[in-house]
Automatic annotation (TrEMBL):
Top-level taxon of origin: Bacteria
EC top class, as a word: transferase
Domain Thiolase N-terminal: 4-231
Keyword Transferase: yes
InterPro entries reported for this sequence: Thiolase (IPR002155), Thiolase-like (IPR016039), Thiolase_C_2 (IPR055140), Thiolase_CS (IPR020613), Thiolase_N (IPR020616)
Key word Cell division present: no
Keyword line: Lipid transport, Lipid-binding, Transferase, Transport
Protein name: propanoyl-CoA C-acyltransferase
Coiled coil regions, renumbered to chain: none
Pfam families to which the protein is assigned, alphabetical: Thiolase_C_1, Thiolase_N
GO MF assignments: acetyl-CoA C-acyltransferase activity; lipid binding
EC number: 2.3.1.176
Length: 392
């Protein structure tokens, strides 16, 4: 397998843009990634287009990537549509990496774009519900909740179990939100950049105990793109080298047996990269709810079981800490346009490895990890992706 370099990155601001289209978002992200890389669209050998839910919101299905990119220079060559729940963007990136690493092409594009806002929020929440086995929902009588995604009920149940096991409190979950907003305050692409207090987080509308509104990732529209190239091709480019050291995707174990998908994906990435959790300097994780971030500290090996909350309380995972987690604001503050999320995580990490993250820069960053989970099967996420980037 050949070494692969992240050559270009670009994204839109994430937010609620009722009158924007998937096409306009995708075109903006692609244009930014091309400008960042210095590569022409016609040099891209294959495109992987990530979009998970907006087909259900907008009605555009089956040829989403071809429709979104029809006015761009990538047309005429392969465009592969990717839907893998919240890890759609991570999966598109994995496939782009694999295409270059295998020698299929020297230049590949991973792009994710999502349109989730709708005048009727029930349409959006219904789209999110498609990430759960519909037969399982019927058997367990998991009715679609009013006013929020079914996933928040799932995350709330996990949070209650974790609280009983670890001693974590709602105040700890509020601290995740405060940390997230502080990080996002310097991220021009983030949906929510204004600071928030513990009182505001805990006092916001209860969604599903113990999760309040501010503890839940928001509905968002947006797009993100990354261009990856072979190491030989990268010699023509002026950008600092950021390498894809490892990329791993796993599905849920049958009946949720054994280690979680996130843990197994991370372990596979560590093994492929020849690194361990102790070698990671900065990370982006799938904080669809505030408690999920803390639990992922443990699943990714950053802390022992039940001890993730100590990393949070001690400031280890804050910007300026030893291991900043979600320095771009994460899903909670950067936003969660599902198909774009996994690529946005990698964009944030690439800036740290290039040394261009500004006020949120993790000084001396050499290795970075992104984790993104998707869907729900039984007691676990339906899949998880882990990617390790380095500048060596």
């Amino acid at each position: 397998m050949r070494r692969v370099v992240v050559a270009g990155i670009g994204q839109t601001v994430f937010g609620k843009f009722l009158h924007r289209t998937v096409r306009s978002l995708a075109e903006e992200a692609l244009s930014a990634a091309l400008a960042d890389s210095g590569i022409e669209a016609e040099q891209i050998g294959v495109t992987y287009f990530a979009n998970a839910l907006s087909g259900l919101v907008t009605g555009q299905e089956t040829i989403r990537g071809q429709v979104a990119l029809r006015n761009t220079g990538v047309m005429g060559r392969p465009i592969i549509n990717v839907d893998n729940a919240c890890a759609s963007g991570s999966t598109a990136f994995h496939l782009a990496w694999l295409a270059v690493a295998s020698g299929q092409t020297d230049v590949a594009l991973a792009i994710g774009a999502e349109k989730l806002t709708h005048e009727d929020k029930a349409v959006t929440f219904g789209a999110f519900a498609s990430g759960v086995d519909v037969e399982e929902r019927a058997r367990l009588q998991m009715d679609a909740p009013q006013g929020h995604s079914v996933f928040m009920d799932i995350y709330a149940e996990r949070a209650r179990r974790y609280m009983a096991f670890s001693g974590a409190t709602p105040e700890d979950f509020a601290l995740v939100c405060i940390k997230s907003r502080q990080a996002a305050s310097t991220n021009e692409w983030a949906q929510f950049r204004a600071p928030v207090t513990a009182e505001e987080v805990l006092g916001s509308r209860m969604i599903s105990t113990p999760l309040t509104l501010n503890m839940c990732s928001p509905i968002a529209d947006g797009a993100a793109a990354a261009i990856v190239v072979s190491e030989a091709f990268a010699q023509r480019l002026a950008k600092p080298r950021v390498y894809v050291k490892a990329s791993a995707i796993v599905s849920a174990n049958q009946d949720g047996l054994g280690k979680t998908a996130a843990e197994r994906a991370a372990n596979a990435a560590y093994e492929a990269a020849g690194l361990g959790p102790e070698d990671i300097h900065v990370a982006e994780v799938h904080d669809a709810s505030a408690p999920a971030e803390i639990m992922l500290y443990e699943r990714l090996g950053f802390a022992a079981a039940g001890e993730g909350v100590a990393l949070l309380r001690d400031g280890v995972t804050s910007v300026g800490g030893r291991l900043p987690v979600n320095p771009g604001g994460g899903l909670l503050s950067r936003g969660h346009p599902v198909g774009a999320t996994g690529i946005a995580q990698l964009i944030e990490l690439t800036t740290h490895l290039r040394g261009t993250a500004g006020a949120r820069q993790r000084e001396g960053a050499r290795a970075a990890l992104a984790e993104c989970s998707g869907g729900q099967l039984g007691a676990d996420s339906a899949l998880a992706a882990a990617t390790i980037l380095t500048n060596f």
